[in-house]
Design goal:
There is one protein chain. The chain is of the alpha+beta class and 228 residues long. The protein folds into two domains: 38 residues, no CATH class; 186 residues, no CATH class. It is built from three helices and ten strands. The protein has a six-stranded mixed sheet with strand order 6-5-2-1-9-10. It has a four-stranded antiparallel sheet with strand order 4-3-7-8, with no helix packed on it. A hairpin with a 2-residue loop joins strand 7 and strand 8. The relative contact order is 0.19.
């Protein structure tokens, strides 16, 4: 009985939380220098050591270097929390989003994308997730994020480096053009006033559906009957 319950619980957990750390959003801002550039990450399970993860940008259709350009600093994160990485710590990220990034990549390289570049997430030296098609310049592709953003669709798990543009929603190319100046000001725009705003912190893994739970219940009933 204990084994059956354990297996069913594991199946439900797998359906609800298929990964550990995933890329849920990328953005290429409209402030001077194209700031802020960066990524939103999401923990689908508790992580005790973030330093096993790293990021790389493969630019202009180029190949991956095969290793992270920046490693996340040591620390922990709870399941369901978001983690933000920016290209530099110059105040632009905080101005745009209204809160500070968790980590700014040294020299910006790891997340210094220009809307047509590929972003790779590593765990212990292996690619576990990606945004963009490696070896392809993203200009004029469905996944281009020049002066805009892309956001992972709810429930879509880490892709292991095999990107599918249909797994994401997009602002559209140049969607943020002009959003750097709000009410006639000079480079004082924010995500809140942008059109459309980046949907920060909204990714969700849906709870197991009634169909799934019903199927698990029927499976448990069948197994219990077989044990009689």
């Amino acid at each position: 009985m204990k084994t059956i319950v354990t297996l069913l619980a594991a199946a439900a957990a797998t359906a609800a939380a298929p990964g550990s750390l995933i890329i849920t959003g990328v953005f290429d801002g409209p402030l001077p220098g194209g700031d802020p550039k960066g990524v939103e990450l999401y923990a689908t399970a508790a992580i005790t050591d973030l330093s096993i993860y790293g990021l790389e940008t493969a630019s202009n259709g180029g190949a991956s270097g095969g290793a992270p350009e920046a490693t996340l600093p040591a620390g922990s994160i709870a399941a369901g929390e978001f983690y933000y990485v920016s290209n530099r710590d110059d105040g632009d990220f905080a101005q745009w989003f209204g809160f500070a990034a968790n980590f700014s990549s040294p020299s910006g390289g790891a997340v210094n994308h220009n809307g047509d570049d590929v972003l790779l997430l590593y765990q212990n030296g292996a690619v576990i997730d990606s945004f963009g098609e490696l070896g392809v310049d993203g200009s004029d592709t469905p996944w281009e994020t020049l002066d805009g953003w892309a956001y992972r669709n709810n429930g879509v798990s880490a892709n292991g480096g095999t990107f599918d543009a249909a797994d994401w929603s997009y602002s559209g190319r140049n969607a943020w053009d002009g959003d750097d100046n709000f009410n006639g000001g000079s480079d004082n725009g924010t995500n809140a006033t942008a059109t459309p705003p980046f949907p920060a912190g909204t990714f969700q893994i849906p709870e197991p559906t009634a169909t799934l739970l019903g199927g698990l219940g029927l499976g448990l009933l069948f197994l219990l009957r077989r044990k009689k």
